[in-house]
## 1
Amino acid sequence: MKFAIIRFGGSNCDLDVHHILNDVLGVPTDLIWYKDSIEGYDGVVIPGGFSYGDYLRAGSIAASTQIMESVKQLADDGKPVIGICNGFQILVESGLLPGALCTNVYPKFCCKWVDLRVENNDTAFTSRFEKGEVVRMPIAHKEGNFFADDAALSDLNSHQRVVFRYVDSGGDVVPAANPNGSVENIAGIVNESGNVLGMMPHPERASESILGSDDGLKVFESMVGYVLQG
Amino acid sequence: MKYRAEITTQLKEGMLDPEGDTIQRALMHLGYDVSGVHTAKKLLIELEADSADDATKMLDEMCQKLLANPVIHNYSIKIQ
């Protein structure tokens, strides 16, 4: 098993994810420049950052690169693909996930710890969580305000495709726990098959207890388990 | 032929526009009675095309593929 982390100009969470996968979990993981190939890899991470300076719209330029066609192919083959923060923005811009990530309601870069509720533990990235479990991870973004029109939203809800919601420490979905104005406090969603996840919080920054939380490690452990299961 | 075009992308009606809202509040603090501010992005594009129609067709494709996000934006194309 080997994973690929795709690097675009301006990606900056690539080494953090690499450390967690390669050093903490011991999965051989390569950093792949976007002009190179991801053929033969068992899973892909599109890390956070500010690809292409967030020019035009966050994630839009990276979404138009050739490698995203390979990512689509890999996702169609059932392999796990996760986009974190800017990676989530790239996944919605490339059409792999529905909706859009707009400017935060309070239009400022927001960097803090948040509580999340696991809404669906039957995906490639959440099998190690309990359903309804409340976990802590940090967010760091200015364009994380998830928007989907009514039809898309109802599709996401009726097929359990909302994976994480921002909640208070008691696990309740309340406006005060919503850091960016996302519709229905949505923090992460999956595709129909559950093998493509986009999320604004950073699991890689919460994957070792020295970082203040290791809740995020379960995301990557689930990803590894999903591949091992075949 | 060389054409110059002006592409404007704007959030669809009803979409939250925090930047516009913030500018509106700032204008009101200055004493102006402004009932709405909406932000838009303007791109000035130079391109080669056989005709104005061809240019418009290409620009429309560019908007669909990259320049606008159809989930949240309306866009307009003006050929100069």
## 2
Amino acid sequence: MGTTEILPDYDIIDGCIRGERKYQKALYDKFSGKMFAVCLRYSADANKAEDMMQDGFIKVFRNIEKFRREGSFEGWIRRIFVNSCIENLRKKTTLYAIQETTIASVEYNETNAFENLKADDLLKMISELATGYRTVFNLYAIEGYSHKEIGEMLNISEGTSKSQLARARYLLQQKLAETSKTLLSVAK
Amino acid sequence: MENNFDKHIKAKLERAEVRSPDELWLKLEGKLDAFEKPIEVEKSVAKLFLKYGVAAAVVGLFATLSFMFLNNSEHKTVAVQTKLPTQKTEINLGGEIKPAVNVITVATVKPEVKPKTKLVKKHIENVELEAKPELLLAESSDLKADLESAQIPVYALKLSTKKFSPSLNDKITIISGEPKNVEINEALNKKQINIYERLQLLQSNKHHNKSSLLE
């Protein structure tokens, strides 16, 4: 992805602690692809994702000396990015609880639908969700946070988190079914 | 509880990578510069303060120790004042000068005249003077012609006081530095001329010998 030489993580970390631009660039090149995907999952459009990306890397560079070098470096960076995205969204978004009863199920062949789906298409579907649905879905389904944790992070109740997740799933399944039908018709 | 739908999505997206725009690093670099510069400035200012603070402390300590050492030492420093020889350019001939009387000093004469010839009237401008003493002398006492006829050089006067208000009791000190006129100058210098007395003499005897004025 980048043009710079591949450096070991500990060299990159030490260089970034010293504030050397070469190592900051190396870190950026190594993780920008994955972190941009994270940002795209939490944002409605690419421009917002770029802002989140810059904020995330600035936080990484400014806090890198706090990394204890015990767990995964990528995991540490990802957590910073997720928190940064949440912080960014929290400033602008209010989440509201919705009634579980309004959510129906969607009939479609899930396995086939996912097999034919690319990551970019899925990201596009997620980005089309309302901010609240998108955020809760990301935190729960991909990051693995519990509803209680999500409630604390977003300053909402557990119930709201659950209802947002259910709604997000329903909408995504709908989109997936539509996409699957389109793909099947194209194949025929 | 994680359902199959979530698992499928997680599998697709957890390790997904999307190429970020190329210019994004440049934007980020710009932001990093903006963040880092104030920190660098703060650090450099702090370093500067530290550097000069340490230097000032060392100098202060050295000065204090030196002061204490010198105060406790038996060797005392004695200030020695030296006087450099000075060259006087004025010669005050004659008796004591009363404070109430203006002292008129005739400036150095450098006429290109041969010895024993008439002295040529010279006027040397002295910008420090508020009035031209020569003029004042002549106007106030109408003595100019008499002075000239008596061969008293009515040169520009360098006064010891700025404000000049001559009176007939004023005394004139003549300074001369012209080597060619040694004889004349010596004769002049020997006299402290009381203008009033000499003029009285001149007026009483119109045929007065010019040289007698200098006697």
